């Protein structure tokens, strides 16, 4: 039997066509702009991306204290705590400035509770704890190895 009779040539052609299609789709996917970075789609995304980029740096070994260095004294710790408190207050002010879109949280919680209550409960959920434990014991008993076969 020769190669053309075994359709090996056609297999190679279809493989090349499929591979070309996959590569072309990958190139098009890489060339399209990122919709998340578009300010029209998500107005906060440039700010979020900037915050992530500026905090992306990982700590270096030189940032860790060497063994045997003295711990900071109380005044230095107090300064660091005050800086953290200031940052916390600034974050709280930023959160307070956010225009929250949830106008009626109690109504929202009530609608969620009604939605959950309207869904049927699975029968397995209604079983008592004892029934579940008995089922688990039964599974454990069935999973034990049988006794060994006596040898003569």
Name the descriptors:
6 helices, 152 residues, mainly alpha, 0% strand, single chain
Describe the structure concisely.
The protein is mostly helical. The chain has helices at about 10-30, 45-55, 75-95, 105-120, 125, 130-145.
Determine Rg (CA atoms, Å): 33 Å
The secondary-structure class comes to: mainly alpha
- Taking pLDDT < 50 over at least 5 consecutive residues as the criterion, the unreliable ranges are none
Mean pLDDT: 81
Q: How many individual helices?
A: 6
The proportion of strand residues reads under 5%
What's the shape? Answer: extended
Distance from N terminus to C terminus (CA atoms, Å) equals 60 Å
Helix content: 55-70%
Quaternary assembly = single chain
Sheet with the most strands, sense and barrel status: none
The total of beta strands comes to 0
- The run of helices and strands is HHHHHH
Can you offer a commentary on this structure?
The mean pLDDT is 81. The longest helix has 24 residues, at 8-31. The chain is extended, with a radius of gyration of 33 Å. It has helices at 8-31, 45-54, 74-96, 105-118, 123-126, 129-143. The chain has 152 residues and is mainly alpha-helical.
């Amino acid at each position: 039997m020769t190669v053309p009779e075994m359709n090996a040539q056609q297999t190679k052609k279809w493989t090349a066509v499929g591979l070309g299609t996959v590569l072309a789709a990958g190139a098009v996917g890489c060339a399209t702009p990122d919709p998340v970075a578009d300010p029209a789609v998500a107005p906060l995304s440039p700010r979020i991306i900037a915050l992530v980029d500026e905090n992306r740096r990982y700590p270096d070994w030189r940032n860790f204290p060497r063994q045997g260095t003295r711990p900071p004294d109380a005044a230095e710790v107090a300064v660091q705590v005050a800086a953290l408190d200031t940052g916390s207050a600034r974050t709280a002010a930023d959160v307070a400035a956010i225009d929250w879109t949830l106008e009626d949280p109690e109504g929202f919680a009530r609608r969620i509770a009604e939605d959950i209550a309207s869904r049927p409960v699975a029968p397995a959920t209604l079983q008592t704890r004892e029934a579940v434990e008995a089922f688990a014991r039964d599974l454990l008993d069935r999973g034990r190895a049988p006794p060994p076969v006596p040898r003569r």
